[in-house]
Amino acid sequence: MTQSIARISTGNAGLNAVLRGGLPPHRLYLLEGPPGSGKTTMGLQFLLEGVQHGERVLYITLSETTEELNAVAASHGWSLDRLDLFELASADEVLGESREQSVLHPWELELGGIIRLIREQVEKVKPRRVVFDSLSEMRLLAQDPLRYRRQVLALKQFFAGRDSTVLLLDDLSASEGGRDSHLHSLCHGVITLDRLTLDFGAARRRLEVQKLRGIDFIAGFHDIAIRTGGVVVYPRLIASDHNRPFVGDVTSSGVPELDAMLGGGPRRGTCTLVTGPAGTGKTTIALQYLVAACERGECGAILQFDERIGTLYSRAASMGLPLEPLVEKGLLRVRQIDSAEMSPGEFAACIRDLVELESCRVIVIDSINGYLAAMPQEQQLVLQLHELLSYLNQQGVTTFVVNTQHGLVGTMSTGSLNISYVADAVVLTRFFESGGRIRKAISIIKNRSGPHEDAIRELRIDAQGLRLGEPLVKFRGIMTGTPVYVGAEGYLMEDRNVSA
């Protein structure tokens, strides 16, 4: 049924995706939201899309002047020269001195005259697309709620049969309780914009399609952002919509001992969580897999929350993992994430672009702590992360997620992170003490995709790169988070050059 309904583009690719194709034409739609949520910008995008297809379009403004609209358009690099603008900045233009009569209330003449002029303008232009900005002014002029609703119904009946797709804008400022249920029932579809002010960082904006008769759309909230060029909509990610076949072969790190611990390496379409206290080599382990993939000719990416890119480059180079040459060859993408400015929806869209447009097959997220801590007021963030990782799994991407445990030596706790819910494999790194020195150990505590080694090995990271020692069998206190090696000293690995 849905496939047979004709659609027109809204001028916004993200909103078209939410609507699964666009809006059914020749209908009346409501776009509502508080001031500053992006209604005017989206309305202009809708009309400019019609201009691109050679359609006559009309912008009716009761609230903004032509100069103000041109300023909004100029900020996005648009020109409104090919739009028909109809401005009614004040009721004096409608009535002039007739307002002085005393038989009828001024508001009765004002609203009636405005509706008459709007109809005349529509008859003259015969637009295929109309934006009416905004209903709040009409509501104020009507004074009486019943009269206002009658006028809106009359507008709907007037546009019926005129082959016009109409977008009514409403800023909710004059409606009781913020929503007008009667107006919702009159319109074929309702799109609601929202603006949230956080305790820190940029304001978050989001969009919800509340109703669209006869159309299957993606329900729920979708993050949006106002950028130069218009409103960008980031559709809510639904992993089940993005299945594609792939071969679940292993991903090698280039270090045989490390691959052996994971039964040959993580498989395509799995997520590996590398967890441990700060300084135990978690990022280096993830980079080892990433660099090895790039050297095989695959495209990879790292999304960096915690560390500056310059520091990452120099630190990786000192351990024999040169990242910059891979970036220059186009095999590696490095993204610095400013999470105070980025919503979860935009982050998911960034990863989708890396996978679908740039064909990245190995992705590192460093770290999940930065992702969770940077968006503390977002609701259900772990659920959004799970959906994102499920999407990567279904795309056949090998994903590595770095998790820093609290404290200098770490604990077995991962805070609010449910390991089984998020990861297919878990690599655990630890410090241990031996002979007055702090050393590192690595072990695999879970591998859902196959067998894994249950031994604890020493991990060394120096100028020679990442190395693993023989299994260490004499430990005490491994489950406390502070394991102590009590075996022979000569069984441990020696330094090579200067430890990085």
TrEMBL record:
GO molecular function: ATP binding; ATP-dependent DNA damage sensor activity; DNA binding; hydrolase activity; protein serine/threonine kinase activity
RecA family profile domain ranges (all copies): 4-68
Protein EC: 2.7.11.1
Limits of the KaiC domain: 6-247, 249-482
GO terms classed as biological process: DNA repair
Enzyme class: transferase
Keyword annotations of the record: DNA damage, DNA repair, DNA-binding, Hydrolase, Kinase, Phosphoprotein, Repeat, Transferase
SUPFAM superfamilies the record matches: P-loop containing nucleoside triphosphate hydrolases (SSF52540)
Name of one Pfam family that matches: ATPase
InterPro entries hit by this protein: AAA+_ATPase, Circadian_clock_KaiC-rel, KaiC, KaiC-like_dom, KaiC_dom, P-loop_NTPase, RecA_ATP-bd
Cited SMART domains: AAA
Protein's name in the database: non-specific serine/threonine protein kinase
Source species: Tahibacter aquaticus
Lineage of the organism: Bacteria, Pseudomonadati, Pseudomonadota, Gammaproteobacteria, Lysobacterales
